[in-house]
Amino acid sequence: MKKVLIISYYWPPAGGPGVQRWLKFVKYLPDYGIEPIVYIPENPTYPLLDDSLVNEVNEKVTILKHKITEPYNWASAFSKSSTKKISSGIIPNKKKQSLMQRLMLWVRGNLFIPDARVLWVKPSISYLTDYIQKNNIDTVITTGPPHSLHLIGLGLKKQLNIKWFADFRDPWTTIGYHKELKLSKSAAKKHKELEREVLTTANQIIVTSPTTKKEFEAITDKPVTVITNGYDVEKIEKQPLDEKFTLAHIGSFLSERNPTLLWQAISELINENQDFKKSFQLKFIGAVSQEVLSTITGFELDSYVDNLGYISHTEALVQQRKSQVLLLVEIDSPDTRCIIPGKLFEYMAAERPILAIGPKGADFSTIITTTNTGVFATYTEKEKIKETLLNYFKQYQQGNLKTNAIGLQHYSRKNLTGQLATLLNN
C-alpha cells in the first residue's frame, strides 16, 4: 500500500465540523490502496469535544502524536470564556468587545502568524523529518485551518522534497474573521507572503469550493482541485418527525450570521396565521451567540425557541432527521461566497427540506438548486423566505413535507475519497 502522512490539528475527540473531513477520508483511503498515517497534537486545546467520534477511528490507522504549546492555555488564565469563543471562531461584535477581547484578538492576529498553533511548526518539522525518512514516505498532506499546519508541509517540502498536498478547508487571508484580527500592515503583509509561499510551493492544492479555486488560481500556477465536503452513510434508524413545525439550525450560530429578515418573516407569519402560530418551533443545536438570541427576543419569539445546546455528532444527525425543515445560514459578505458549510451535505442526506440564507452568488446555492434539496434566498429576499416557510408549512399540514433529491451520491464521503485517491496516485 502507498503510505501517505496526513497532518491535522483536529482529530477525535475534537468536535465540530473541522474534524469530519479528514476523519472520513482516513476511513475510506485504505479501500483505494492507500495507507493513511495521521499526525496530530498530543495535548491540543479543542473548543468542542465529541467523544462519540473516537469510535469512528479505524484501530488499524497509525496515529502519531507530538506535544504542542498552546497560547490559548495561557490566555484562558485571564478569560476562559473569551478564549474558548475566539479559539472556536466566535468573534464578538466590534461594538460589544471588551478590552480583554480586543487585546486577545490583536495578540492572535499580530504575534501568532498565521495562527495560535504556529509554535507547533518547528518541533513538528524536526520530528516528522526523521519519521518520514525512516518509513519511506513520499507524500504528505496538510489540512488547515489552522494554516500553521501548511508551514509544517512547507518545511518538510524544503528539507526532503517530498510530494506535498495542501488542503484548505477554508480560505486563508479572505476568510471572514481575518479582518477582525486587528492586523497591523506588517502582519497583514506577512500573512499574504506566507499564503503565497504555500500556494506556490505545494505540488497540489485542494479546496472545498469553486470560488476558492478561482481565488487561488490567481495566485499560483500549481494545480487547484475542488473536493467538497460530503456526507457519510450513517447507521441512524428512521426517526419519527417532530410533531411541531420545527425549523432547526445545527451548529454554531455566529453573531454575523444573524438573519434579521428571517426573524421578521417568522414574526409576521405568527401574527398572520393562527395555525402557524400554534405549530411553529425554532430549534437550535449548538452554540448560539447572545446577539442572535437578543434579536430573537426583540421579535418576541422567545417562547418558540427550543435551545438544545451542543450535543454529540450522532445526536445531531438524529435531530436533523426529526426536524421538519433545516435552516442553513451563512454570513452576508462577498468573502463568504466560497464557504460551503459541511453540514449542508448532512442536511441533504437527512432528506429534510432546507431553507438556506446567504450572500448573492454563494457556491452552496448552486448545490442546493442542482440537488433539489431546498430553497436558497439572499439577505434581501424576505418575501421569498416567508413564501418558502408558508409553502413548507402547508405541506407539513397535509403530511407530505419531504424532498426529492437528485444526484446526492456525488457527495458521499466514499466517492469524494475516490477523487482524493486519484490525485494521490497520479
TrEMBL record:
One of its GO terms (molecular function) is glycosyltransferase activity. Pfam families: Glyco_transf_4. The keyword Zinc does not apply. It comes from the Bacteria. Keywords: Transferase. Residues 107-234 form the Glycosyltransferase subfamily 4-like N-terminal domain. InterPro entries: Glyco_trans_4-like_N. The keyword Transferase applies. This is Glycosyl transferase family 1.
